[in-house]
Amino acid sequence: MTISIASQEISEQQLDNEVVLSVEGVSKKFCRDLKRSLLYGVQDIATELVGIRQKSEKLRRDEFWALKDVSFQLRRGEALGLVGPNGSGKSTLLRIISGLIKPDSGFVEIKGRIAPLIALGAGFNPILTGRENIYANMSILGLSKKEIDERFEAVLDFAEIGAAIDAPVQTYSSGMAARLGFACAIYTEPDILLIDEVLAVGDIKFRAKCYRRLAKLREQGTSFILVSHNSHSILSICESAIYLLKGKVVTVGNTDSVVDKYEKDLFSNEIKNQAKLLSLTDKYESKQSDLNITALCFKDEQGNLTRSLLSGETTYFCVEFKAYKEIENVTLSFLIQETFGESEHVLCINTQQDGESWDILPGYYEIQLKMPYLGLKPSFYTLKLSISKNLYYMLDAVESFKFTVEGKGMSQCLFYQPRTWKLVRSHNI
Ligand SMILES: Nc1ncnc2c1ncn2[C@@H]1O[C@H](COP(=O)(O)OP(=O)(O)OP(=O)(O)O)[C@@H](O)[C@H]1O
């Protein structure tokens, strides 16, 4: 009896550790010049046909490595996040894994069924109806007609597109196409699901439903590769991650440490580019306006200009402007969004709400907003700001002011909570 339990434990452990995807030394080159790319393509086909094509590590004119020597393994039930800046090769890697394109060197080994959710409605034919596309899409993913018949209602139910199922997919909104694509992919019950940013579309309710469904699939042993610019999604879904930069693997390992490294690199690049954003000297100055915003900046408690904001620190947000004439009832409003977030406003502040407005004479001014504890979590932000007269008459605005906030150990939080701790002993035993 004991022996059988032990052997069962071992076999479960082996199953858990089962590698379902192996990517070994994968490299892929592309050519920047379209004409030359076609020429290289024809050359490659011709040399392959006569059997003299050799895999070359050399780049021809205008070629570059979109992926270089990428290796990793994905295990059964594992969720792996893929992070990296634009153009780092994430989509190329997913396209190679899904078999859409061939690598120039290296190989990909897959055990089981793979379902790619790579672009919105990937694989959908726009002139076919939703119903026809479900059959076409799921049969490409390897299901028989009988299997699709059995799952059809569940797909329809999940996608929530109602009567539109008999309309051509080209009439669908991007959210509807994404829902149908997601439903088709998950109901094929794949062993590996590749998800490229698709979770960023759709309303919050649908996203929550997708996350619940993904958690369920994972319990059943499905593995995922998730590409997202939103670190929060990666951190909440994946236990391991890969950071790609210019086609090469920078780090691979536990999600927290990989995302931390990726964000640090992004922060330092943003901060280097930030200096000139503090002053708005390049901003167009309208001669017809009664007021012009001249600079935006942050200051610390001592009044020093600061470029590195820290969650939880006392911070002043300062807006300098020049008024050309006497103006009554001047108000300021701004809203802050996460630059790479999913478009929800993180913070909207309006002097009117706070019962503040000013009557001003011609001259130079600085409005200072004191935030005793900066409640923003570490991330990149974009701020939009406007100064108005009588709330609705806009005098001047700044469309996009970018800044970063740093802090430690808050990668999964949504905001900073100022706090102190105390242990109080209530009774003796
Ligand atoms: N078919 C192609 N022909 C030529 N260049 C390409 C092709 N596909 C991708 N590239 C280039 O390869 C590089 C990697 O692109 P890829 O789409 O994989 O990046 P990514 O990390 O997914 O970017 P993003 O985050 O913007 O989606 C980019 O420089 C891109 O311009």
Secondary structure layout plus pairing:
Elements: H1 2-16, E1 19-31, H2 34-49, E2 63-75, E3 79-83, H3 90-97, E4 105-110, E5 114-117, H4 130-140, H5 145-159, H6 174-187, E6 192-196, H7 204-219, E7 223-227, H8 231-237, E8 240-245, E9 248-254, H9 255-274, E10 291-299, E11 309-310, E12 315-323, E13 327-338, E14 345-350, E15 358-360, E16 363-371, E17 379-389, E18 393-406
Parallel strand pairs: 3-7, 3-8, 5-6, 6-7, 11-18
Antiparallel strand pairs: 1-2, 1-4, 8-9, 10-12, 12-16, 13-14, 13-15, 13-17, 17-18
Helix pairs in contact: 4-5, 4-6, 5-6
The structure holds adenosine-5'-triphosphate.
Residues 30, 66, 84, 86-92 line the site of adenosine-5'-triphosphate.
Number of strands: 18
Overall number of domains: 2
Percentage of residues in helical conformation: 25-40%
The hetero molecules present are: adenosine-5'-triphosphate
Radius of gyration: 27 Å
Give me the CATH architecture of the largest domain, please. Answer: 3-Layer(aba) Sandwich
Strand content: 25-35%
Q: What do we call the CATH homologous superfamily of the largest domain? A: P-loop containing nucleotide triphosphate hydrolases
State the CATH topology of the largest domain. Answer: Rossmann fold
Quick one: biggest sheet?
Answer: 6 strands, mixed
- CATH class placement of the largest domain: Alpha Beta
**General shape:** globular
Main sheet: which strands, in order across? Answer: 5-6-7-3-8-9
Q: What count of helical segments does DSSP give? A: 9
Q: What is the arithmetic mean of pLDDT?
A: 82
Give the uncertain stretches in residue-range form: 1-16, 274-278
Spell out the helices and strands N to C: HEHEEHEEHHHEHEHEEHEEEEEEEEE
The assigned structural class equals alpha/beta
| N-to-C CA distance | 45 Å
